[in-house]
Each structure stands twice: as structure tokens, then as C-alpha cells.
Amino acid sequence: MRLNLRELIHTPGGSVPFAFAMDLSELDFGGICPAQHPIQVTGTVRNRAGALELQGEASTVLELHCDRCGKAFSQEQTIPLDPLLATELADEESEGEIYLLEGEELDLDEIARTAFILGMDTKHLCSEDCKGLCGQCGKNLNFGSCECKKKSIDPRWEVLS
Predict the structure, then answer these.
(1) Cβ–Cβ < 8 Å for 129, 66
(2) 7 vs 111, which has greater pLDDT?
(3) Are strands 84-86 and 72-81 parallel, antiparallel or unpaired?
(4) Could you tell me if 86 and 102 are in contact, meaning their C-beta atoms sit under 8 angstroms apart?
(5) How high is the pLDDT of residue 128?
């Protein structure tokens, strides 16, 4: 979505609200595509004393698999959007921290997509206390312990028992 800010650039104290849905269902993240539902992006761009300020959020429900036990689960994800906006760069070093307007328009898709991808967690757990799977037999330890640990102890580690 492209947002025209022509009026706002010259109106200190003004604001322009925005809301749109973004589709990232084909985004491969660690071998899965977790963003199966539309991502709702909402917010406002304000002109505060000549400086453009964007405040918003991108939210959806992710469809994930637990990294410890493999269980499929859903998790709400909300990423804040608060980049700096400018019509031109003061120096080359700040290029990655500031989004430039293209003429008098702002590419909200790029801002929301980048923030959402960078805000994704690298590890997904179905619960904080997930015990995972047994390394020997593969039993889900969330449903009880297994007996294989007692049967096969590496003789080099017996002293520690």
C-alpha cells in the first residue's frame, strides 16, 4: 500500500491514519510458512513540527510447530511499527535506520513486511515448560516419562549416576 503524504508534509500537527491487510502466506521461515492468516496493519503518520512520525502495528495469528516436541499450535503475533521517515538523508550512515519517501508517497508494504520479518521469533515453543521428545525413543515427554533412559546408559557416564 502506498500512502500519499503530500498534504501532511506541509501541515504541522496533522495526521493520516492507515489500515490494510497484507498477505505473507508464501513467506518461508525456517522451512514452514507460519503467516497463513492475513496480517492486519494499522497506524497513523503524524507531522510533529515538520518531522514525520509513523506509529502502528502489524498483527496476525501464526500457525507454528513447536521446536521441542513438534506439536502444531497457533500463536498471536503483534509487531510494533515505529520507523523514522524522511524526504532526504542527511548522511549516508543513517540509510538503514530511516525510510525515505518516494516523492510524496510512503511504501507501507515495505515497512510492514520488513518489521514483521525482523520481529519473528527464531524459536517457537508450544508452552514455556515444553519438555520435548526423548532423544532415544522419540516419546513426547509432555505426556509422561519414558523407560528407555534407564535401560541404555552410556558406560562412560555411569560414574555420574
Answers:
(1) no
(2) 111
(3) unpaired
(4) no
(5) 92
